[in-house]
Every structure is written in C-alpha cells, then in structure tokens.
C-alpha cells in the first residue's frame, strides 16, 4: 500500500527519496528521449536515470534536490522551477512564437525608419483594417532572402491565392511583378547597409575583422568579411559587411584591394583593428598591401606585423577569447621587437615554430 501511494504522487519528498535505499542511478540501454529544457536542470546528465525504490524514474532538481516523477510530465517541474528558482523555461513552440513576434516588431521599427511612399495597386482595400506596406515589404524581403526564394514567386497564382486567403488586402500592396520585388530587395539592402555603416562608425572600439575566402556551390570565389566591435551601449557586436566575388588570382594584393574597398565604403579606415584569418601565405601579403594602401590614401600607419592572428583548428576558435596575435618568426627576424612594442615584457614566446601553431603570442 505504501508503495502504491508513493507511486501515485507527482512530487516526492527530497529528504526521503535521496536516501540510498529509495533511489538509485542507472544508464539503461533503451532510453526515452529527453528533449525538454527541464533536463538542463536535472541533477545528473540527460542519459543517467534516477529511480526510486519502486523503479520509477525521477527528475531531481540540481538547485534544491526536490524530486518529481518523470511520468508526471513537465508541467509540474516547470512550475517548480518558476516558483522556487525564478527559472522560466519556454517550450520550443513558445520560443518560435516569441521569435516571430520579435521579427514583426523589428520589421515595424524598420518600416517607421523608411519614409518612402508605397503605391497602392488597387483603388480600395477589401478589408476594414489596413496593413502597413513598409512592414509587408520588410518581412517579404527577409523571407525571400533567408530562404532563397525566387523573385518570380510573387507572380505564382497558387502563392497569391494562399496569401489572399490569409488576408485579401495583400493584393492591394503586394506587386505581382518580379522586377518590383527585385527593387524592394535592393532598396532594403541599401537601407540596411547605411544603418550598419552608422553603427560601425559609432563603435567605441577599433573594428576587428574576420576574413575568409572560399568557393560557393556554383564555383565562385567569394571573400567574406565580418566586423567585430564594441557598440555605443558597450556590447560586443558583429555584422557581415561584405560578400565579394574575387575576379582573377587569389593573391594577397587582390584580396587587399577588395578589403580596402569595403573599408572605404563604410568609412572606417581610422578604426581598422585586427584580422582573424587562416594561415595561408597570401594573407601575410594581404596585410602588407593593406597597410600600404592605408598609408597612401589616409596617411595611417598600420603595423601589419602585429595585426593578424591565425585561426587554429579547434571548435572554439570563433568564440571570444583573450586575443592571441600571430607573430611569424621569419618576419620578426627582420625587425627588432623594441621598435614595434612599447611594452615588450608582454610578449611571451614558445620554443620553436610548429606548422599550424603560433610561434609567439600576446595576451591582452
């Protein structure tokens, strides 16, 4: 009888159930999926099972050691986390809804920023409530660009019938010409570029760059450039500045020309900081060429010996870490360290250079 009463309860007293005779740990071969976020707050790993004296599986809070029957569902556990620890765990569906609401709010904010006038495509709308054409344009362009949707989708009768069913007013503002959608996309790109330009120019720190060259699925040589900086509100921020096709040789000089063009377009020559790159030899040539361009065009002395560090082959390389700036021994042999460092005591050396590793680094 006592065993049946214990099994019927969703909540199990922490002090009693933690006794060695009432609970045990096991890792069964056949496991039930534990995808809920509540298992992030379980005392053990997702794979390890905790059972009571009756063999029922338990969830044990790692914050207060309170126990619940796993068969009781996640509602009671979620309620416990909220009430006892102020931990709010949203379901995947709630997370998706919040993401959609955030996207719509962002689109509404962008719509208010753009002052261009949208032309109606019909004399009178079919519904009483008017939709915001600027928000419609922003959301539509975000959809086609994120999902690689053709411009011509807007002219498909099946697609327009679907939208008309959701809201007949869409026919008033959504054009049926792919050329109009192309114009929408280019206009939104330019608006976003100007917005990012203002933010990057207002950076509190130097603007540091991640640069990489790779081949697209359609065999185009693409140079990607991402900016990393501290924003006006003190947050670490990053934006994709450019995806440029390289024509001709993949030489360092050719890459430097493209990077310099991006720097000029965004007006951030005075804020150029460090570069994160792979260990290809043409990247050394690129930094040398870039320093020469900055000196010629802006009279800015850019020390290319200290401005690049290589991405080592680890899974955490893109995570923010204390900066480790690449210093190739063969380059340092040509210069004295004292001529480039005001605080040479910060330089730490490793004995011998190994392929794929740093020969020396500075930690800031």
Automatic annotation (TrEMBL):
<keyword id="KW-0539">Nucleus</keyword>
<feature type="domain" description="BED-type">
    <location>
        <begin position="33"/>
        <end position="92"/>
    </location>
</feature>
<feature type="region of interest" description="Disordered">
    <location>
        <begin position="1"/>
        <end position="36"/>
    </location>
</feature>
<keyword id="KW-0863">Zinc-finger</keyword>
<feature type="compositionally biased region" description="Low complexity">
    <location>
        <begin position="1"/>
        <end position="17"/>
    </location>
</feature>
<dbReference type="GO" id="GO:0003677">
    <property type="term" value="F:DNA binding"/>
</dbReference>
<dbReference type="InterPro" id="IPR012337">
    <property type="entry name" value="RNaseH-like_sf"/>
</dbReference>
<dbReference type="InterPro" id="IPR003656">
    <property type="entry name" value="Znf_BED"/>
</dbReference>
<feature type="compositionally biased region" description="Polar residues">
    <location>
        <begin position="19"/>
        <end position="29"/>
    </location>
</feature>
<keyword id="KW-0479">Metal-binding</keyword>
<dbReference type="Pfam" id="PF02892">
    <property type="entry name" value="zf-BED"/>
</dbReference>
<protein>
    <recommendedName>
        <fullName>BED-type domain-containing protein</fullName>
    </recommendedName>
</protein>
<keyword id="KW-0804">Transcription</keyword>
<keyword id="KW-0862">Zinc</keyword>
<dbReference type="GO" id="GO:0008270">
    <property type="term" value="F:zinc ion binding"/>
</dbReference>
<dbReference type="InterPro" id="IPR052035">
    <property type="entry name" value="ZnF_BED_domain_contain"/>
</dbReference>
<keyword id="KW-0805">Transcription regulation</keyword>
<dbReference type="GO" id="GO:0005634">
    <property type="term" value="C:nucleus"/>
</dbReference>
């Amino acid at each position: 009888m006592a065993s049946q009463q214990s099994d019927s309860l969703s909540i199990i007293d922490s002090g009693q159930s933690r006794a060695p005779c009432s609970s045990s740990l096991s890792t069964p071969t056949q496991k039930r999926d534990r995808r809920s976020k509540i298992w992030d707050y379980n005392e053990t790993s997702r794979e390890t099972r905790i059972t009571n004296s009756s063999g029922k599986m338990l969830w044990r809070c790692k914050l207060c050691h309170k126990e619940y029957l796993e068969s009781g569902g996640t509602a009671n556990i979620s309620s416990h986390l909220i009430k006892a620890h102020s931990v709010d765990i949203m379901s995947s569906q709630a997370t998706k809804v919040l993401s959609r609401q955030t996207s719509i709010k962002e689109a509404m904010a962008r719509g208010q920023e753009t002052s261009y006038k949208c032309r109606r495509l019909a004399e009178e709308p079919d519904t009483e409530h008017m939709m915001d054409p600027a928000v419609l344009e922003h959301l539509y362009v975000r959809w086609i660009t994120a999902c690689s949707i053709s411009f011509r989708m807007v002219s498909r009768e099946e697609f327009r019938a679907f939208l008309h069913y959701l809201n007949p007013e869409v026919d008033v503002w959504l054009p049926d010409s792919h050329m109009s959608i192309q114009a929408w996309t280019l206009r939104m790109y330019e608006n976003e570029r100007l917005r990012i330009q203002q933010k990057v120019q207002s950076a509190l720190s130097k603007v540091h760059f991640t640069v990489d060259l790779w081949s697209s699925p359609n065999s185009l040589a693409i140079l990607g450039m991402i900016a990393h900086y501290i924003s006006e509100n003190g947050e670490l921020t990053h934006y994709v500045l450019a995806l440029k096709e390289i024509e001709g040789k993949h030489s360092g000089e050719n890459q430097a020309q493209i990077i310099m063009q991006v720097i000029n377009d965004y007006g951030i020559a005075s804020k150029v900081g460090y570069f994160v790159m792979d260990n290809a030899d043409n990247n050394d040539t690129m930094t040398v060429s870039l320093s020469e361009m900055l000196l010629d065009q802006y009279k800015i002395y850019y020390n290319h010996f200290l401005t690049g560090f290589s991405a080592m082959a680890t899974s955490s390389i893109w995570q923010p870490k204390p900066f480790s700036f690449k210093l190739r021994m063969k380059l340092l042999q040509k210069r004295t360290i004292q001529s480039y460092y005001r605080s040479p005591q910060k330089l730490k050396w490793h004995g011998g250079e190994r392929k794929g590793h740093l020969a020396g680094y500075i930690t800031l």
